[in-house]
Every structure is written in C-alpha cells, then in structure tokens.
Amino acid sequence: MLRLQTFIYTFSLLSVAARADVKARNCSEVREACVAKGFSFTHVPLQEISGETLRVCPQGNTCCTQEMEDKFGQQSKQDLENLVDEMSHLLRSTFVSRHKRFDDAMLLVAQRLEGPFNIESVMEPIDVKISEAIMNMQDNSAEVSYRVFQGCGQPKPAGMTRSTRGVSDVFNARFRPYSPEERPTTAAGTSLDRLVIDIKEKLKMSKKFWSNLPDVLCVEERVTAGNTSDDDCWNGHTRGRYFPEVQKDGLTNQLNNPEVGVDITRPDTLIRQQIMALRVMTNKLRNAYNGNDIYFQDSSDEGSGSGSGSGCTDVCPTDADAEDLTTEAPVVEADRGGPVDGSELPSAPPAALLLTLALSVLALSRQWR
User: Fold this and answer.
1) Could you write out the three-class secondary structure of 350-363?
2) I need a labelling partner for 90 at 20 to 30 A (CA). Which of 64, 301, 342, 366 fits?
3) Contact at 8 Å (CB) between 72 and 7?
4) What would the DSSP string read from start to end of 285-305?
5) pTM of the predicted model, to two decimals?
6) In the beta sheet, which residues pair with residue 316?
7) Distance between CA 272 and CA 251 in Å, rounded?
8) Which residue has the higher pLDDT, 206 or 150?
9) Neighbouring residues of 286: CB distance < 8 A, sequence distance ≥ 6
10) Interior angle at CA 360, CA 355 and CA 362, nearest 5
C-alpha cells in the first residue's frame, strides 16, 4: 500500500514538473523523490524531455520516460493485486467465525418459529377455541347447576327475575369451526410461515459466504484460469504457480503468511466495531431462542483480544454453544425452619457462661431463704 502511494506521488511530481516554468528544465526533484523512497533513478532523465509517445505521463515536456511508465505500471499492478489478496485474507480471517455464529443463531430462532412457538398457529384458532368453550359450558350448565345445588343447597329466590335468553344467531355464526380452505389469505410473502422458509433458505445460502469467498474467486472460470493453467497464473510476484503454504483461517495464523502484513497488536477500529455489532446481535438471537430477555448481558461469548475476534482456534461452537447463554437461577439459602446442626451454633464465650451460672445460683439461694 505504501509503495502504491509512492507511485502516485511520483506521477504527481511528474505532472507538476510538466506544468512548471519553462526555465525549470532539470529533473532533480523527481530524482530526489525516487532516492528518498528507495527506488532507482537510472531511468529518470537529467532534464525534461518530450512526452509525445507517453501514455500515462503528460505528453508535454516531462521528466518521465517510457521505461519509467512500464516499470511503475507493472509495480502498481503487482501492489494492487497484493492489496486485493490481502483484503480477501482479512475478510476470510476476520468475519468467518462471527458470521457463522450469527447465522447459526438466526437459524435456531427460525426453527423455533416453525414449531409450537409459531404465533400464527397459536392465535389463528383462538376464536374457535373460545366458541367451543362457551358452547361446552352452555351444554353442561344444567348438570353443573344440579351438582352445585346438591352440594350447597337451593338458593333463595331473588326479588326480581329475568327471562332466560338463548344464544344469538349472530354469536353462533361468528364462532363456528371453519375448514383450512377458509383461512384468511395475506399478501404474497407476508405469512410468517413463508417468511421463515424464505429466511432459512437465504441464511443457508449465505452461511459460508465469507469462508468460501476466496475459494470462489480462485475457481471462478470467468476470473481465473483452470487447474491445468497454473503456470500462467499470477502468484503475487510473477507468472507461475503459488508455492508458499496456504495458511489457516484466523488473524493469528496470518503471522506466517507472506502475502499479508498484519499487525495483530493494533486491530482495526472499524473491524472491531463490526465484530462487536455481530456479537451483540448474536447474543440477542440466542437469548430469544432460550426464552430470555434479549437485552440480557452475558459474558460467556467474550473472546480474546487477539485473533479473529471469535475467541476460538480451530473449531468454533455452533448450535451447542447456545446453551452457554442460559442463565441459572441464583442459589437460594437453606430453609431456616428446618433442623440446624449443633455444630453450626455459635459458641458462647466462657466468661459470659460463668457469669450467667453465678447469677442463677445467687437468685436461687435468695429464694430458698
């Protein structure tokens, strides 16, 4: 990245030199810039030359040559490809475990919504259940009244009576069983069942997105060559096969990666914020799955300060670690009304015990007199 910035800076100097005064025909500033950045200045001319045949540098009087364009262009391409490769490693090593946990927690909540916890399956027949309960009560009201009067006696007649009424036809029509075909239809895609199925399919498709992204880029026919053309691929330095050992996922494993220059002691602030946001959302989903308050704070998912931010090395927990977020009830003290062991009673000081015995003997002696 620093070398790429250097090339941009050098081309800027070349552009400025082209627009400078006609009298300033030496290229000392460009030569000094190349020396300061550790580049060779053998291709830098001593004085400005005509740039009619140049493609990138200004075509007027300039301190740039065709050899400089080719060299800097090739070096910029190499640094840009290394930068893309570095970012793919960072994406793979940083977000893999966090997104995997988030996707697993989201799938757990979606599976809960498909079972008896589906709010639509609970609320949909509630009117029918209420109607059946009312009808059952009305059908058995005579038997219930007989048993109550038999056990408690006949009630005294009240002064005012009211006429009995039957169940209204409107009431019966409103609370009646209906077939599944009569289920109220919703707009397309708004049913909870459809939404759950849709989100599960999307989660399964994106579950291994970050971990498979580098592999997809390496096997995509429109992006890379086939396996038989490895010698014609770019390995980061030149055309040929990639010989260094492929490192494992995780930021700590990138210390041995020659393609990635990462300082794990200075993590990126923006990436750490995104990891924390994923951690908070994952905890909320797991708390919802376990029936806890989604804002319940639990430190069991805290990871180490280094590495990918996941706190795991090779194998990260998935569905099983949802049990880690369940909270245990606080330990309740023992029943104070039960028997207490004599060994747990506080022992009285010997001096106080002797004083109590002396006062008791003195009181008894006076009573005997």
Assistant:
1) HHHHHHHHHHHHHH
2) 301
3) yes
4) HHHHHTTS-TT----TT---S
5) 0.33
6) none
7) 13
8) 150
9) 105, 108, 322, 325
10) 95
